[in-house]
Specification:
6 strands; 257 residues; disordered C terminus; single chain; elongated; alpha+beta
Length: 257
């Protein structure tokens, strides 16, 4: 199924698609189309949709995009279907050429002021991130007092990286919920204290790899939930007791013990 057959995002004004598949205009038969509009379920080229006089402005400069749409009597949002994510994503806008020129002039006029504002915003976000990572690390230490302090800071920094999409940046993570914090620690242990990554590289399915290392991960978490000494003993015991989470002595990561 083509991306343009999926439910459409809600936008103000016309909606234009960058098609996933090769499409031709249902009216003039021109194509393949780089951009198209759907009318009654049929693709139309920009000329047939009366949008051919507009120019494309790629995404990336929110100030210019917003002002270009303000300065244009007619504009359209351009989207493309992202198959892996299963959703439409904005690629830019179509605006009037004169509107774009006026928007560019406005942006040039206050470029210095906007640059200073961006610097202030960046400094503010950096300070917020430092406080958040410190709070996340403190919560890790509260839930897992046996976790070394440096390790807790490293886990918090990784999970809370802005724009990463990791659990620390989720709503639950920002609220320092016990589930989110525990999930971040569990993931860090899985990748850092077990052969999980090597299993994946060897072609072991993710669920199977998680199952193999699950005992070791839980042993570390159980140890960290008490004291540092207990955590060390738990890890050593798990590593030396024939834990089925590890591959056999043959070194074949595709075999279970």
């Amino acid at each position: 199924m083509s991306g343009v057959d999926r439910p459409f995002p809600v936008t103000r004004g016309p909606l234009v698609f960058q098609p996933v598949k090769r499409r031709r205009c249902g009216a003039c038969r021109s194509g393949p189309l780089a951009l198209l509009v759907l009318e009654d379920g049929q693709p139309r080229c920009l000329d047939c949709a009366d949008l051919g006089h507009l120019v494309f402005l790629p995404r990336g400069d929110s100030a210019l995009t917003g002002r270009a749409r303000q300065e244009s009597g007619l504009s359209a949002v351009v989207v493309r279907f992202h198959r892996r994510r299963g959703r439409y994503e904005r690629q830019g806008v179509l605006v009037e050429e004169g509107g774009l020129a006026r928007a560019e002039a406005r942006c040039l006029a206050d470029a210095e002021a906007r640059a200073r504002r961006r610097e202030r915003d960046a400094a503010r976000r950096a300070a917020e991130d430092v406080r958040f990572v410190a709070a996340f690390a403190a919560e890790i230490r509260r839930l897992f007092p046996g976790c070394p302090e440096e390790r807790a800071r490293a886990v918090a920094g990784h999970a809370g990286l802005r724009g990463s999409g990791r659990v620390g940046r989720s709503a639950a993570g920002r609220a320092l919920s016990e589930g989110a914090v525990t999930a971040a620690v569990r993931a860090a242990v899985r990748h850092g204290d077990t052969p999980y990554d090597r299993l994946l590289m060897a072609g072991v399915a993710r669920r199977e790899a998680r199952s193999r290392v699950g005992g070791t991960v839980q042993a570390v978490l159980d140890g960290w939930a008490t004291t540092a000494d207990a955590a060390s003993e738990a890890v050593e015991g798990a590593a030396g007791s024939g834990d089925p989470a590890y591959p056999g002595d043959s070194g074949d990561p595709g075999r279970t013990a």
